[in-house]
Structures are given as C-alpha cells and as structure tokens.
TrEMBL record:
The keyword Transcription does not apply. Residues 1-22 form the signal peptide. It comes from Saccharothrix violaceirubra. The lineage of its organism: Bacteria, Bacillati, Actinomycetota, Actinomycetes, Pseudonocardiales. PANTHER family: ARABINOSE-BINDING PROTEIN-RELATED, BINDING PROTEIN COMPONENT OF ABC SUGAR TRANSPORTER-RELATED. One of its GO terms (cellular component) is cell envelope. It is found in: Cell envelope. This is Probable sugar-binding periplasmic protein. Pfam families: SBP_bac_1. Its main location: other. Belongs to the bacterial solute-binding protein 1 family. Keywords: Signal, Sugar transport, Transport.
C-alpha cells in the first residue's frame, strides 16, 4: 500500500450541512473534530466488502444510527475491497467511512495515513477503549496508533464430526496436539487402492483456514521477538511444522494432494466438512451459520483448538472487520460519530452479531442477553471472553510475512526443504529485510 497524498478537498454544501468540513487527511483542528448537532443534516457514504444478505445486515446496523441523528443520510455500497478504497483515495473520491476485511493491512493503513488517526475523537469523547478485549484492540491499532475500530470479530476453534469420531471410539474432542494427531489417524478412511475417502484432519497449508495464523497460538509460536525481529526459527514454530509434516507423511503427499483437489470450495455447500469428508478442522464461528444453512443434518461439535501444552488450552486467533475514516474523507467529524456507533453501541453490535453470526467486539455485547447463542456458538463466545486469545499481528508490510510463511509451508510439506531450521531462518531474514526497506 503506497503512502498517498493529495490536495485538500473542497467542502460540498449539498453533501453536508455541518458547521464545517475538514480538508485533507487527518486534520486535528477544531473544525475537523467538532461533532454534528443532533438535528443536523449530513450525508455519509460507507464502503464495505459485504454483499447480498450480509450487506443487508450491515445496512440495518447503519440505519440504527438514525436513532441518534434522524436527519443523517447513509449510502452503503458493498463489494468494495481494499484496492477500491485505495483507488478512491488516490482518485480524490474516498468514502466517508470504509470497512476492511483485511486486518493484515492495519499497519499500512495507520503508518501511511490511509486511515486517519482517531486519537483526537477518542480523547474529545473520553472513549474507554477498555470496553474492547485486549486481543481485539491489538489488531485494530499499530504501534499505539489507533486508526480503526472493530466491527465484530472472528474467533477460530476446532470443529469435529461427532459421528465420525464416535465410529472410531472417540467420545470427546482432542485437547492436545498429540491427541489431534492420534484422532486424525484413527478417523481417516482409505479405499482399497489407498486413496483417501475421509481425512481425519487436513494439514495442507493455505487450504480453507489451514493457515499459520490459526495454528501458531496453539504452539505458543510468536511472529516477532522482543527485539522486533522475525522469530519463525524458534522451537515453537519448528514444532508446528513437524506436526504438519507428520500428518502429511501419514497420508502421503501425492495422495493428500489428489484428495484435496477433489474437495469443494470453502464457502459452498460442497465444503469438505459439510460433505463429511474431513473429521476435524479449524474454522471461525461463522461456520456455524453455514452448517445450519447448507448441512443441517451433520452432527458436529466445537471446541478450542488443541494445544501443544496444557496451559495454552483456550487460546486461539481472533481477527475481524475493521472500520476507519479514509484519508481525504469530506466529513470526518460525522464519520467518527458513525464509527463510534458501530464500535460501541451495544444494541447495534448485538443486532449485527445475530445477523452475521460473528462475535461481538465489546465486553458488554458479549454478555448481552439479547445475543443469540447456541451450544456450538457458545464455544467461540467463551473463547472471546476468556482472555487468552491472540490478535492478528500488524506490520508495515501488510500480509507479506504471512505470504512468505504460506509459501514456505507449501515447500516444506512437499519435501522441498531439506533443513527446517535453516529454511525458517531464511524466511526470518526475508521478512526483516522487507520491514527494513519499508522505512517504518
């Protein structure tokens, strides 16, 4: 993401009747931070990457803002990804409010000014950021700079097919990595020719949610050390890769690749777990809604991700949608009021959570009695409230570190990395060099 600068925008009287409007990116003067009056008329354009039913649910949450500002006009445009947000800023036509699914980019958004600093508004309104769980706070800021707020969150746990586990004599989900490996082998089914019919646990990288971010917390693996340097060559990461390789060798790499090639897409009714072709998997809370809609007859349970050490049990990854004020937004003060509504209004958060089946991002909303929680969704609520989750790591190079790890994982599992430690040290150097070149 390039650092973008442009000339200040002119105030457009037809778009907003506030006392003043801000020009350029993140001006911290009084005009830029003065809240609109309750009866003021103003227009806000919101861009998100939601579509279809999910876009409609977000529109409902946006419309609830009119209880506070009845004369506000909000235009919600869906299917707008980060590239389109950046292009809008570069072309001098950004939205007033932008939502992003890509928390990997928070470091770039904050450090480049792509999203404006929210500190002036937070200080003016004395907002208590302690309402947001620590892990969620961590992935919505970068090096102490807060340029975004969360809009719900995703929490990752283990899904397991009760019938497949029961057929193998297993009555409870695995709690340790050793149990996960054991249960995966016991629940795998192969045809007479050796081909895989059911995989106990699919270790293939970059497939569905088999990503380093989701697995690393289970091993206590940290992306960066106290010195700020990439720390992929540590024993925890090595253990994670050895776990994956043990399962790959059990299946046979070529055999596993043939099996994987025949599986359905992640967000389709042909998803492998829906079709009972995998016994266990890591996925987010949102999968409960997909299973209810697309595979209601599948008997499944949810649990925390198994961990390498008992004291880590209950940890996992949390990430989610973020919302900010793009550089050059015409109405930053009014934009902030809408962002604050999405960020801290309990009724709006709970309503959106019930509609999207994502996890509320404030402590009050997590405990609200209006939150719709069944047995399987409760696992993720409990994880979110448990205080052991880890937020997605923010860097000034976006998701380049994740891509580097994904590529390495593929090579490692294919047997193309002769020395695990040496290979991880090379990736450490690659990531450190990229961060150094970013200048941030």
């Amino acid at each position: 993401m390039r650092k973008i600068s442009r000339a200040a925008l002119l105030c457009v009287a037809a778009a907003v009747s506030l006392t003043a409007c801000a020009a350029g990116a993140g001006n911290n003067n009084t005009a830029a931070t003065t809240a609109p009056g309750k009866d003021d008329k103003f227009s806000l354009t919101v861009w998100s990457n939601f579509s279809g039913r999910e876009q409609d649910e977000l529109t409902k949450a946006l419309d609830s803002f009119k209880k506070k500002y009845p004369n506000a006009e909000i235009k919600h445009e869906g299917s707008q990804d980060d590239d389109k947000i950046t292009a809008g800023i570069r072309g001098g036509n950004p939205p007033d409010v932008a939502l992003s699914f890509t928390t990997d980019n928070i470091g770039q958004f904050c450090s480049s000014g792509t999203f404006q600093d929210l500190k002036p508004f937070i200080e003016r309104d004395k907002v208590d950021l302690g309402q947001i769980p620590d892990a969620v706070r961590s992935y919505t800021e970068y090096k102490g700079q807060r340029c975004a707020l969360p809009v719900l969150s995703d929490v990752y746990g283990l899904y397991y097919n009760k019938d497949i586990l029961a057929a193998a004599g297993i009555t409870t989900p695995p709690k340790t990595i050793a149990e996960l490996v054991d249960f995966a082998k016991r629940t795998t089914k192969k045809a007479a020719d050796g081909s895989i019919e059911v995989a106990g646990f699919l270790p293939s990288p970059q497939f569905y949610e088999n990503r380093a971010q989701m697995l690393a917390p289970a091993f206590g693996a940290k992306w960066f050390g106290a010195d700020g340097k990439s720390s992929l060559s540590t024993p925890e990461w090595q253990d994670m890769y050895k776990f994956q390789k043990e399962l790959v060798d059990f299946y046979g790499y070529d055999n596993l690749e043939r099996f994987r090639a025949g599986l359905g897409q992640e967000y389709s009714a042909d998803h492998a777990f829906h079709q009972q072709k995998i016994a266990m998997m890591i996925d987010g809370e949102y999968r409960t809604a997909f299973l209810k809609d697309q595979a209601p007859t599948v008997k499944y349970g949810t649990a925390p991700v198994p961990t390498a050490k008992p004291d880590l049990y209950g940890t996992g990854l949390t990430t989610g949608t973020i919302v900010g004020i793009p550089k050059g937004a015409k109405n930053p003060a009014a934009s902030w009021e809408l962002i604050k509504h999405l960020g801290f209004d309990t009724d709006a958060i709970v309503g959106l959570s019930n509609g999207l089946k994502n996890i509320p991002h404030t402590k009050a909303a997590l405990a609200d009695p209006k939150l719709e929680v069944d047995e399987n969704f409760k696992t993720f609520i409990d994880l979110a409230a448990g205080g052991k989750l880890q937020g997605n790591v923010s860097t000034p190079i976006g998701d380049a570190h994740i891509k580097a790890v994904g590529d390495f994982s593929s090579s490692w599992q294919a047997g193309a990395v002769p020395d695990l430690v040496a290979g991880l040290k090379e990736i450490d150097k690659q990531i450190d060099d990229q961060i150094a070149k970013s200048g941030k």
